[in-house]
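yo

u said u wanted the structure for the complex thing, so here. seqs first:
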Amino acid sequence: MGNGRIIAGCLAPHPPHLVYGENPPQNEPKSECGWETLRWGYEELRERIPKDEYDVIIVHSPHWRTYIGTHILAIPEAKSISVDPIFPNLFRFHYDLKVDVDLAKSIYSEAVGKKLDMKLMENPKFRVDYGTIVSCHLANPDWDKPIVSISSNAAAKYFNVEYMQELQTHLGDATRVAIEKSGKRALLLASNSLSHRHFTIEPPIPEDMSKEHIYHHGQYLWDMRMIEMMKKGQTREMIDLLPDFTQQATAETDGGSLTWLMSALQYPKYPAKIHAYGTVIGTGNAVASWKPEVGGPA
Amino acid sequence: MNPEVLKACVVPGQPQPLMVPEQNEGWMKLRRAYDEMAKEIKEANPDVLIIYSTKWLSVIGHQIQARKNPEWTHVDDEWHEYGEVEYSFNIDSELAHQVNEACHDRGLHTRTVDYHGFPIDTGSIVALKLLNPDNKIPAIILSSNIYADRTETVVLAKSIIDALKKSGKKAVAIASTALSNRYHDQMIDPKEDRIHSLKDHEWNLKMLEFFEQGRLEDVSQLSRQIQQEARVHKVTNFKPFWWLSTMMGQTNYLEGKIFEYQPLYGMGGALVSLTPSDRSFGDLEYDEADPENFQGDRNVLKSEGTDSDESEDTGGKE
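structre next:
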């Protein structure tokens, strides 16, 4: 086996509001509309990366937060209802998904080889986190591709963002090597928002877009700075700046998803395609993709 | 003193004492301490248990569990290899709604949750399974709002007291929280568990010394310093003892009992009860404010004469 490759990497944020706005049959709550800019951005992403181009989706989720090592979902299938503990009024999603256990175990082995603390999640009763579900649903609403879900280690809180980035850099390398050895074509999703300060009040109609805007201008400026670097192919510089961004914009990059993605993609020097930027309950979210075959080698 | 609250309890929210106590002598001691505390609570004969869980995080104000009989098979995100916990809890839905209304009366943003499959957090599950094993005492569960600071937390407790007065019910208040909260970040042999650092251990001992003397309000007043010294800053502040002390009337007129203190994968796990008492270390003059209502977050950086009079946090507010 060999010749596996990453066909694309995406910044694929997971606000449950986007699924709520989309009204898929799996989600119990129903909306009138909402957060169209971001949802249309995901539509464009799906057009740019059609599902016949990949065999598996690998998602790194800040909402499966682990404190002792990094965990990888390694059960062949998972079926349950995911209720968001923070927005249960918006997200009660019936999921039924398949996991590429072979690839999950291969990523685990490669990461262990790099001295990372890793754990396989093999409990069949485990409930998959909603970050994984939202990002995967919006990338592929048909759910007809297996996934691998990787937890987010809390190293940024326990040590600092720099230390977290060291871990995620090794994890990204391990992920890429495992994909290459597998012979599979993989789509990678970093499931995080950019700036991440929420409003603490929800409008009576959650999808009332007249109430939706960035939490404060400083967050917006930081988000634009990061997006400009993505557009210019300055991803190494972006990752160097990420500790400051994470602190100043209370960014969800503290979970390591974006660092993992950039490492796996070997820090692209070609521009990202920015599909959308929008806010969700005050947080800043970008849908972006890096496609090596289009952009050229890293 | 609030006569509506018969007792305050501190318990750790980690799953080891419930699921794998046999793996470590200290975890087994904590398990036995839970059993002992359960007897003490039963003897107090409360109408309801009120749990404030630091493992249930919320963003849109505080949330209150109001589903009468939530049932699920729970697997912990971190320690999934321990297996599953089947639960079926007895929630005092009526009181949950009364607390919600009382919170609104004092200006707080709260809401009840009543959904099948809602993920009740590990800390609440451990507390209810071990302290109320036969489910005879109804309970309510409160989230910990990640953005709340002292005012919202104190006012939350005062709102609960309002609701208890209205209902005529007597409660035991339970804070599900670690003392020091730094895990070992690498996998360890359970037999070799220890508090993560000597500094964490010393701060835990200081808290326990105060608890043993009944000085709950003194620990509450020290919460900001404890957050700096012995807590990983996952949320804005160390809030559970603000809540617990306000539930007890913000006083040191309490009798403290330390059931156990042991490491839980590096964290400080303690079971403590505090019961109203005439004996006391004495109340002191305190620096922290004693708010009655929550008036919203104020934009202290706003200059006079600026256009917007919105507070920073009123994104969706009319």
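Strands of chain A lie at 5-11, 56-66, 70-73, 77-83, 92-98, 118-121, 147-153, 185-190, 273-280, 283-290. Chain A touches chain B through 45 residues (CB under 8 Å).
cya
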